[in-house]
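Final report, closing paragraph on structural work. Over the funding period we assembled a curated collection of sequence-structure pairs, and we close with a single example.
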Amino acid sequence: MNTTDTLIPRPSHVEPLDAPAFTLNSTARIGATGPAVPVAGQLASLLRRSTGFALPIVEDTRPGDISLEVVETLDGGPEAYVLSVTEEGAKLAAATAAGLFNGVQTLRQLFPAAVEGAAPTDTTWVVPAVEIADAPRFAYRGLMLDVARSFFTVEEVKEQIDVMTQFKLNALHLHLTDDQAWRIEIHDPGSAGNPSGLPYAKLTGVGGQGAVEVSTAVPPRGNSGFYTQQDFRDIQAYAASKNVLVVPEIDLPGHVNAALAAIPQLNPDSQVKPMSTTAEVGWSTLTADLPATYEFVREVLNQLAAITDGPYLHIGGDEAHVTGHDDYVAMVQQFVQIGAETGKAVVGWNEFAAVDLPEGAVIQYWHGAFEPTVQQAEKGGSQVIMSPAANTYLDQKYDPASPIGLSWVEGGPFTWSEYYNWDPAQGGLNDQHILGVEGPLWTETVRNNQQAQWLLYPRAVSLAEVAWSGQEVRNAGDFRRRLGALGERLAQQGVVFQEAPDVEWSAASMWPFPEAGTSSTPEYGTIEA
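Its predicted structure, as stored:
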């Protein structure tokens, strides 16, 4: 299918032209200079793989070429772009490389689905004539990957980035620590910077070996591992090349058992806690009257901020059920200040709206009372990332029989529509209060990229359109039709996705489990009858 009417997310303005289409042929080139060259290189790599054409990158263009240009100004902000396709070629312009990257994703979808293939085919590479002017509704359009419950390697994280970016998602939140594991290397600062002698190396030496264990998951135990600080830099560099911002999270003051198991000084009795594999939440806490608590948090956040390229540092703040209210406020008030002193904007789950937040702080709303978030946004100036569980939590089951996914959110099982049929501007918030939208993927039952993709897609595509496209251009029936056309593209890429029962996909079923009674597969095991 090759049409202007299957684009996801839906652009702000699409005008099909009553004119001949553009056909890319073997003599075509890609024109780009300056900051447009890296994006042109990415487009060339995609097209070379599937067309077999040389597609050299040149400074000047002629009829039959594709051109990418960074212009001085463009309405719609730094991620806006304009795309014009005629019989003479395709011309893409934006004020930044990020805008060009977004435009390339749209051009990519205008090509036949075979453009996503891994080898050249006999396809005629026709792109319909069209004028597109496009810009995002929200600046932040993210996914969260919980690498604490089950670890994802650097290469697996890069694979996730490759898929998410084609839908103009531009933020990846990594949940690096939890009760089960600690996934980011923290260096020993030396005796002068470590008066309490905290054994920071044990955070990964002990905590990096942990993982969740859930009997219904396949396999039951999650993956162990951790990122060195260089690994984290590598992930960020790769993400930046795909217009993705990485947001690291150290969850405090709850969800900290892995730290308590590694560092005895964080416990009132100075005895390490045992590591845990349980999926239960809310049962661990830091201690408010221990000086080591604040020494630890300061060192960890300072080191993480020093290796974080982006402006945000997430400090958690959720589900601290065994932390007394006064202790919670006392600790989090200091933690947000420590975070702000690193020069980063502090992000936290909406429970942390109970404290006085520093300028630039961001509240990630996920569950519970909404009013504190609204008050902080209206009076304190905090922006909000909207992640309401019933509309964004991508770990929820499609089917009660599935071993992959959770089912604690009311209203399930969840298909694409629950993630599409809502407006982030709600409950007193308007667009100026909202930084963006994020879909979290918690990994209590997820063990590899294929299982993660199956939960993410197509539901993350719904969130991508919610975050990018204006409310006025969105329509569930129209989206359902466009979503159906997407299946073949995902299949060409080898992306595992859930074939929604109410969507007529144009690709074969990608249900990733054997039918009951058949032999198991190494990737997924067997669903019992």
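Residues 140-493 form a domain with the TIM Barrel fold (CATH 3.20.20.80). The mean pLDDT is 93. We thank the funder for supporting this effort.
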